[in-house]
Amino acid sequence: MDLNQILQSVDLFEGLTAHELDRVASICVEKRFKPGELITREGATETELYVINEGFVEILLGERFGASARVVVSLGPGQIIGEMALVDQGPRSASVRATSDPTVVETIQRADFESLCQQETRIGYVIMRNLAADLSFKMRHRNLRER
């Protein structure tokens, strides 16, 4: 699928203009994976966000601690992985494994993202606002489940 169409479907980029999406697309680097290949490992410290362009991945928990990993969710085109890498440099909270052939992801390095945000402050504002809203939703949802 066309990269700009994929980026336009990603909630994180909601509110960006076509020109701004072009700027985001300019810092994306495509990576391809085969079924069973790990895209990222739980506990790793990495600095990239992944946008699924084609195919599917599964999110796995437990692998880091030697336990058998369990699949918690499957994701597909237009969904993102590793958004916290844009905020901090903490360890990955889960492993991600490709499940389709091919699985194509677009990566955005934190340094490239920060550089883009310094050049285009509105892009940074919109993305960080969307990221904050997403994290707020996830925290509320988690807190409601624990009651």
Query: Which CATH architecture is right?
Result: Sandwich
Order of secondary-structure elements? HHEEEEEEEEHH
Strands, total number: 8
The outline comes out as globular
The CATH class label is Mainly Beta
Amount of helix: 25-40%
The radius of gyration computed from the alpha-carbon positions, rounded to a whole number of angstroms, is 15 Å
Largest sheet: 4 strands, antiparallel
- What spatial order of strands do you see in the largest sheet? 1-8-3-6
Sheet-strand content, in percent, reads 25-35%
CATH topology (fold) name: Jelly Rolls
Separation of the first and last Cα atoms? 41 Å
Figure out the total of helices. 4
Q: Give the CATH superfamily.
A: Jelly Rolls
Poorly predicted spans: none
Q: Tell me the structural class.
A: alpha+beta
- Summed up, the domain count is 1
Q: What number is the mean pLDDT?
A: 89
Please characterize this protein's 3D structure.
With 147 residues, the protein is of the alpha+beta class. The protein has a single domain (3-111, 121-145), classed as Jelly Rolls (Sandwich). It contains 4 helices and 8 strands. It has helices spanning 3-9, 18-25, 110-119, 121-145; strands at residues 29-33, 38-40, 48-54, 57-61, 70-75, 80-81, 95-98, 103-109. The protein has a 4-stranded antiparallel beta sheet. Strands 2-7-4-5 form a 4-stranded antiparallel beta sheet, with no helix packed on it. Helix 1 crosses helix 2 (18-25). It is globular and about 45 Å long. The mean pLDDT is 89.
